């Protein structure tokens, strides 16, 4: 009976060993969670940067470098500035059937700078067509 009585509870040494094993597991889990939080922060920053780049490209694509060779546009805290340089001089546009078009078209290289919250997010170049109307549309 005394043997059963000694086996009924935990000794202090067994309790300490169990706490150490639990603590090592908890430390490993907290380290894993911390690295996941850091990775999520990096992913969020990358997504914001890609979103800013897509917005900047959309703003630049809507501009006509033949009319405005340099400038900027601001949307919220995002500032997109550009400087366009003529690559191919303006030529009269021609339709698919070979008839003269209404516009003269030139090719530009645009240096684009994207700034958000005072810090530069991205710099890139894009080729963009510039146009101006040179003929009136024919009367029907």
Question: Briefly, what is this?
Answer:
With 140 residues, the protein is of the alpha+beta class. 40% of the residues lie in helices and 39% in strands. It has one domain (2-133).
Give an account of the 3D structure:
The chain is α+β, with helices and mostly antiparallel strands. It has one domain. Helix content is 40%, strand content 39%. The protein has 2 helices and 4 strands; from the N terminus they run ααββββ. A 4-stranded antiparallel β-sheet has the order 1-2-3-4, with helices on one face. β1 and β2 form a beta hairpin. The longest helix has 50 residues. The chain is rod-shaped and about 105 Å long. 9% of the residues are buried. The mean pLDDT is 89.
Structural class, from helix and strand content? alpha+beta
What would the principal axes of the Cα set say about the shape?
Answer: rod-shaped
Q: Write the element-wise H/E pattern from the N-terminal end onward.
A: HHEEEE
Average per-residue pLDDT, rounded, comes to 89
Counting DSSP E segments of at least 2 residues, the number of strands comes to 4
Summarize the amount of helix as a percent range: 40-55%
Number of domains: 1
Count of separate DSSP helical elements: 2
Calculate Rg over CA atoms.
Answer: 33 Å
The low-confidence parts are none
Largest sheet: 4 strands, antiparallel
Which percent band covers the strand fraction? 35-45%
Name the strands of the widest sheet in spatial order: 1-2-3-4
Amino-to-carboxy terminus distance? 114 Å
């Amino acid at each position: 009976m005394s043997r059963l009585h000694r086996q009924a509870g935990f000794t202090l040494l067994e309790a300490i060993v169990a706490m150490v094993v639990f603590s090592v597991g908890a430390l490993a889990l907290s380290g894993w969670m911390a690295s996941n939080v850091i990775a999520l922060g990096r992913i969020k920053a990358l997504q914001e940067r890609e979103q800013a780049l897509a917005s900047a490209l959309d703003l630049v694509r809507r501009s006509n470098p033949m009319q405005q060779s340099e400038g900027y546009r601001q949307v919220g805290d995002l500032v997109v500035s550009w400087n366009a340089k003529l690559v191919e001089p303006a030529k009269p546009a021609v339709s698919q059937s070979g008839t003269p078009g209404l516009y003269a078209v030139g090719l530009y290289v645009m240096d684009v700078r994207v700034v958000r919250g005072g810090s530069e997010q991205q710099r890139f170049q894009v080729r963009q067509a510039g146009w101006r109307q040179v003929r009136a549309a024919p009367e029907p």
